[in-house]
Automatic annotation (TrEMBL):
Reactions catalysed according to its record: N(6)-dimethylallyladenosine(37) in tRNA + (sulfur carrier)-SH + AH2 + 2 S-adenosyl-L-methionine = 2-methylsulfanyl-N(6)-dimethylallyladenosine(37) in tRNA + (sulfur carrier)-H + 5'-deoxyadenosine + L-methionine + A + S-adenosyl-L-homocysteine + 2 H(+); 2-thio-N(6)-dimethylallyladenosine(37) in tRNA + S-adenosyl-L-methionine = 2-methylsulfanyl-N(6)-dimethylallyladenosine(37) in tRNA + S-adenosyl-L-homocysteine + H(+); N(6)-dimethylallyladenosine(37) in tRNA + (sulfur carrier)-SH + AH2 + S-adenosyl-L-methionine = 2-thio-N(6)-dimethylallyladenosine(37) in tRNA + (sulfur carrier)-H + 5'-deoxyadenosine + L-methionine + A + H(+)
Source domain of life: Bacteria
Gene3D superfamilies assigned: Methylthiotransferase, N-terminal domain, tm_1862 like domain
Protein's gene: miaB
Name of the protein this chain belongs to: tRNA-2-methylthio-N(6)-dimethylallyladenosine synthase
GO cellular component, one term: cytosol
Compartmental location: Cytoplasm
Enzyme class, first EC level, given as a word: transferase
Function per UniProt: Catalyzes the methylthiolation of N6-(dimethylallyl)adenosine (i(6)A), leading to the formation of 2-methylthio-N6-(dimethylallyl)adenosine (ms(2)i(6)A) at position 37 in tRNAs that read codons beginning with uridine.
The species this protein was found in: Bartonella apihabitans
Amino acid sequence: MSEANKKIGNSRKVFIKTYGCQMNVYDSERMGDSLDSEGYVATETPDDADLILLNTCHIREKAAEKLYSDLGRLRVMREERDPSRPLTIGVTGCVAQAEGAEILRRAPTVDLVVGPQTYHRLPELLRKVHEGQKVVETEYAVEDKFAHLPHHNRRAVQKRGVTAFLTVQEGCDKFCTFCVVPYTRGSEVSRPLDQIMSEARELVDAGVKEITLLGQNVNAWHGVSADGDVLHLGDLLYQLAKIDGLKRLRYTTSHPRDMDDSLIAAHKNLGMLMPYLHLPVQSGSDRILKAMNRQHKADDYLRLIDRIRKARPDIAFSGDFIVGFPGETDEDFEATMKLVQEVGYSSAYSFKYSPRPGTPGATMKDHIEEKVKDERLQRLQALILDQQHQFLQSKIGQRIEVLVEKVGRHEGQMVGRSPWLLPVAVSTNAKIGEIIAVDVTDASSNSFLGRAVN
Ligand code: SAH
Ligand code: SF4
Ligand code: F3S
């Protein structure tokens, strides 16, 4: 907060709602930081807020439509408000990028529309709004957004806990035929090494023990060392591992085509790189993979999984699947079921194909009936749930390391993160931020129960 704002006690409140992926979670945090320096304090209650930002997702139709039902509610809230407490409403993120001014037409209650590449300009854009303008800003900024963001707010980092996200790469050049991301986030950009290192140090100084590097295609990250050498994600992980006080590293989301040898070797040689990898494949059918423009075959993926498992035998995989892509036959779907059976995931996300405006998939022939998509989704999800159950059960009796994250529901209980991300409930005196040895004694459908080892 600036001195001027402090003196006049002019603290305004902002409520940010986040839809979509982890990159949006990170963006919401950074928007909060940039508003903090303008005198805005975060609130968890929309009713208290002077400014409400909806940080949106465009990936599937349902995600995008959710925005409009929320805006309907906000319109009512605004109408019922005491006029002495004006409310500003902004839409940020991927729907903002994709629909721009159309949002103002559909929902005139909105004051401000800002795409994901320009939110560092929020304070300046809000000033325009307060002067009475409606603002739409969806240009890809020429300047580096990240270089213009303020430092992390230490209090906010501490409040969020001992794990943190750090975006290192944005955008996508892969153009899978179902996906809006290349259009909403723009082309692939890697943040420079120095910027990432100093942001990571800032997070660790504020108490963060585990960092998850983020990118739409995080393993396409590349940079240059001080000596001019070209660096890949594996090299970045080694650099980060040198930061004193940082205990664990993860990265997400990866594309199978960008898993290079040095990254696979990092899984073998870098103990603090956690044995969990989200590696989406979308389908097990070569015909469908080709139509999706994934640029690899099912067998390439299976061989890749083998190589990574060889480097790190205790690694757990998760994935993303789309059922009912245009032209998907029963046989294609069975190939997906077979691939899932061969891999054995610890968890996975599966979605019904949703045609998105402007993507090649939307205009393809042979769209699949909703009923068929539903049936396939149900079968796939049942298989994935069964694998998740088996994975959890397979760890009972093992001794694992747990990063203590927060106080649990029961007296004396803490909740921590297992190496495979799944939470562990354990009775212990250990403090938040400690890494403790735990014997896994039981498992529920999505978490472990454990006993602390003295
Ligand atoms: N960059 C990541 C995924 C980003 S989108 C990757 O390449 O894997 C997250 C997931 O949403 C995708 O993996 C895909 O499974 C799903 N998805 C994307 N577009 C979709 C669409 N049109 N319909 C249904 N699911 C979709
Ligand atoms: Fe979308 Fe494909 Fe890019 Fe992932 S790799 S963000 S699915 S276009
Ligand atoms: Fe959604 Fe944009 Fe993320 S479309 S999944 S919020 S990159």
